[in-house]
Amino acid sequence: MFTGIVQGVTEVAELEQKTNLSTLALNLPEPARQGLQVGASVAINGVCLTVTHWQDERVYFDAMIETLRLTNLGQLQVGSRVNYERAARISDEIGGHLMSGHVIDQVTLTGRQEMDENNLRLEFSVPSTWMKYIFPKGYIGLNGCSLTIAEVGEQSFSVYLIPETRRATTFGEMPEGTPVNLEVDPQTQVTVDTVERVLAQRGLA
């Protein structure tokens, strides 16, 4: 599990594309490598990946075909900047909301609006399939970052970023048109799906 509090931004140092598989390497700083073991989980742009090996500061991961198809990891190149977060430990403070690292789809950044010197508003377009899980003041996972939803449209939503979020993630420099990994709040998803199932069983949906 992850907290949705991105620990840093780094660049893709190596990328080897094979048949239905990509191996990527990230240069992680020393604090992010403390206690690292083969098999450990790290969220890269919100996608839970497993450490396969490392050499010095360079840590390697494999991404399978479904991950490459469903997420923006399939569009990475050497030099691409990504958010990262180590898996949470029992003693960690959950400053965001619990996230699984299981991305369900991608959304697209369609608008950037500088509200003032301290607030940046980002708007995203969303496939209609997922809109039922998106509510004002609810949680959303975007490229591994836990954010609070502000406004919700028919097929869009917006979030507001404080300076620290802009500094610590790739959102501060992200241009319009960028695909972003989406993870909806699992509790919201379970609640909505359960209500839909109950209503359908009663012939009310």
UniProtKB/TrEMBL annotation:
The residues covered by the Lumazine-binding domain are: 1-97, 98-195
Superkingdom field? Bacteria
Give the InterPro entries listed for this entry. ATP_synth_asu-like_sf, Lumazine-bd, Lumazine-bd_dom, Riboflavin_synthase-like_b-brl
User: Where does the record place its Lumazine-binding repeats?
Assistant: 1-97, 98-195
Q: Which Pfam families match?
A: Lum_binding (PF00677)
Give the molecular function GO annotations: riboflavin synthase activity
Q: EC?
A: 2.5.1.9
Task: Check the record and name the SUPFAM superfamilies matching this protein.
Answer: Riboflavin synthase domain-like (SSF63380)
List, alphabetically, the NCBIfam families matched.
PRK09289.1 (NF006767), PRK13020.1 (NF009566), ribE (TIGR00187)
- What this protein is called in its record is Riboflavin synthase
Q: Which organism is it from?
A: Marinospirillum celere
> What taxonomic classification does the UniProt entry list for its organism?
Bacteria, Pseudomonadati, Pseudomonadota, Gammaproteobacteria, Oceanospirillales
